[in-house]
Design a protein that fits this description.
Number of domains: 3
Strand order of the largest sheet: 3-4-5-2-1-6
CATH class of the largest domain: Alpha Beta
Strand content: 15-25%
Order of helices and strands: EEHEEEHEHHHHHHEHEEHEEHHHHH
Largest sheet: 6 strands, mixed
Distance between the termini: 17 Å
Shape: flat
Helix content: 40-55%
CATH topology of the largest domain: Rossmann fold
């Protein structure tokens, strides 16, 4: 592989900037820039110089031998002063050596995957960790990066390989007396795997919502105070408010952190019958987004008003304009808003009480394929030839292996690493 380098910290002025170099000639690049460290030392304060000897900076240098770095390759990290000019000059000096090229997005992590320092689930967990905005997102991403999903998949694979081995024993000893009936144990192993996968797939929607953010739709008739409520909750003028009914035509989205939960509030068009084609389109979009949102806040203008649409289980129904009617909430003076936020947090918190490990559609599809195969084996275990049973089980193992990156992942690698910065 080529030796690669990149700025591993954020662009711009900072207290410290870290430049990472990885590959078979990383130490050679370091020697050209910094000379050598005393024998046996892997870190130290060194002068960084350009090819003509010009002093560029004083840096703390860390050397990682092959097999002991993030990528698994020889790696050098230069902890520089975070000046834009210093970073630019050091990167140019590295390039001028002719021994290294600029890394592509995610290439350091890709090499960690190829060198088996990480599996695919950990790569995805790292991506989520970088993107995490709230405490719940950080916690779930760290759980995946720490190997929780990988460990579950490995346990399921071990059970399936054991089941296939038991069936293969009946094939190997077809002309002899098999010591015992293996099928009860096989059925038990299959059922355990099927139950685990069913549980994970059923909880995948919540896990995906945690990763991407929950959507809370604010819905109601025109001029009920939806946009005013959104502005009050977000603390900014995110939506235009007016006494004229039907001001909101499209969906206005505001992302917030509600007690550690990632929440996107949706201000939707007022729901009513209208002949205006633009407003009619806005109403249709409002109903469509509200239908798929994890939670809906249905606003009523006054305590005696009827909901504009039939509430579903879990919807929050609240009367607005407390300043006029004396009940409910008021986005103008803040009455009841803290209670409303607490209720929203509690409802979403209940959803996250038992989050699964599957937060990506690719993984959900792989587990669903595995589940389908195993259900077919379980339901036909006494009727299918042993060879077909083991073939189906090994097909299920392949589906699980795809989750952790052992097979069939080349088509998804570019998509995954596209979200990484150059220094990762």
């Amino acid at each position: 592989m080529d030796t690669i380098f990149a700025l591993a910290t954020a662009q711009g002025k900072a207290g410290v900037a870290v430049v990472r170099i990885s590959g078979p000639q990383a130490f050679e690049v370091y020697t050209l820039l910094c000379g050598s460290l005393p024998i046996g030392r892997k870190m130290g304060l060194r002068s960084v110089r350009a090819g003509d000897g010009t002093l560029l900076d004083q840096a703390l240098v860390l050397l990682f031998p092959e097999g002991q770095s993030f990528t698994g390759e020889e790696t050098v990290e230069l902890q520089l002063h975070g000046s834009i000019a210093v970073v630019r000059a050091v990167l140019a000096a590295i390039s001028d050596t002719g021994l290294a090229r600029v890394a592509e997005p995610g290439e350091f992590t890709r090499r960690a995957l190829l060198n088996e320092r990480l599996d695919l689930t950990q790569v995805e967990g790292l991506s989520d960790l970088i993107e995490a905005e709230t405490e719940v997102q950080r916690r779930e991403a760290m759980r995946t990066f720490d190997g929780a999903l990988r460990d579950m998949i490995e346990s399921l694979r071990a059970n399936l390989i054991r089941a296939a081995a038991l069936i293969e024993a009946t094939i190997d000893f077809a002309d002899e007396e098999v010591p015992e009936n293996v099928y009860p144990e096989v059925e038990s192993l299959l059922q355990e795997v099927i139950a685990t996968i069913s549980s994970e797939v059923s909880r995948s929607n919540v896990a995906q919502s945690v990763r991407k953010g929950f959507e809370v739709a604010i819905i109601g008739p025109p001029n009920v105070g939806k946009s005013t409520l959104l502005n009050a909750l977000s603390g900014k003028e995110a939506a235009i408010t007016s006494e004229i009914a039907g001001t909101t035509r499209d969906i206005v989205e505001v992302r917030m952190d509600i007690q550690g939960l990632p929440v996107t509030f949706l201000d939707t068009a007022g729901v009513r019958e209208t002949d205006d084609p633009i407003e009619k389109l806005g109403v249709a979009r409002a109903l469509e987004r509200a239908k798929v949102a994890e939670l809906r806040v249905i606003l009523l203008e006054g305590p005696d008003a009827d909901p504009i649409l039939m509430p579903s289980e879990g919807d929050i129904i609240v009367s607005t304009k407390h300043d006029i009617y004396g009940v409910g909430i008021s986005a103008l003076n803040g009455v009841g808003l803290d209670d409303l936020l607490s209720e929203i947090s509690a409802r979403l918190g209940n959803l996250t009480a038992d989050i699964g490990l599957i937060s990506r559609e690719r993984d959900r599809v792989a587990l669903s394929e595995c589940h389908t195969r195993l259900c077919h084996v379980r339901d036909n275990i006494l009727y299918m030839p042993s060879e077909l049973l083991t073939a189906e089980i090994y097909g299920a193992v392949q589906s699980l292996s795809a989750v952790i990156g052992r097979v069939g992942v080349e088509d998804v690698l570019d998509e995954i690493f596209a979200s990484f910065c150059l220094g990762k």
